[in-house]
Amino acid sequence: MIRGYGNSGFGHSFEEAVTEAPPGMADIAGYHRVLRYDLGGLNCAVRFEVDAVHGIPEAENSSQKTDAPPGNPVDQLTQSLENVAVGSSNRRHSYPGARSVQVIVRGTAPPQTQAAEIKSIRRNGKPLSTILPQLWFGRTPYLVRGYHDNGNFTLIRSENVEENLKDWEVKDQNQMALRGVVSLLGQLREVVRGSETKSCVAFCVGEKPLKLQVFSTAQKKMPLPEQVIERFWKTD
Length: 236
What we know:
Elements: H1 11-18, E1 32-39, E2 42-49, E3 52-53, H2 73-82, E4 115-122, H3 132-137, E5 142-149, E6 152-160, H4 162-170, H5 172-194, E7 200-205, E8 211-216, H6 226-233
Parallel strand pairs: 4-5
Antiparallel strand pairs: 1-2, 3-4, 5-6, 7-8
């Protein structure tokens, strides 16, 4: 029997029950990754949360080992972020105490091929088709599903869904939806480029039909430091 947290369901409790933190990582609240890949011609950096590693991490013998070869764009992007200054990109802080981001190396960096998503599902709950889009954007190959009745888990299923993701991607309706996402992202990029501050906020109006309203911010606020954007997206 697993107890839930108020109205939030049993997801967090189930994750804690079926996972074990690596040595030195017990106090970590969450694990996030950033993948860089081409999406319909757009050079995207996609951030997402990884719930667990499926199986024994292949990189457990090296606390700094990654699944990417040295010198590739992922490593370079990580190294660039390690030394960026905190604060506005158009001015440097001179007051005492100003410092750069401190990177604490801890744990391992298992390959993306071992990333797993964990879901707690009520009996006759979410079908696999409703979960696949999240896994597709995060390139997550493993799915762990725990089926329960009010917190009483009776079945845990762990499976590799790579073939399911391939089938999902090629379906006509999903291709149409993905092209729509690419088109929307492209339009948003052009709106931001045309704004005075080159910084915008998008707000989705919940009433149907859904509307996305975009507002220019009063001050320039970049998603990444300018030197990082200049290095990795300067040709876009």
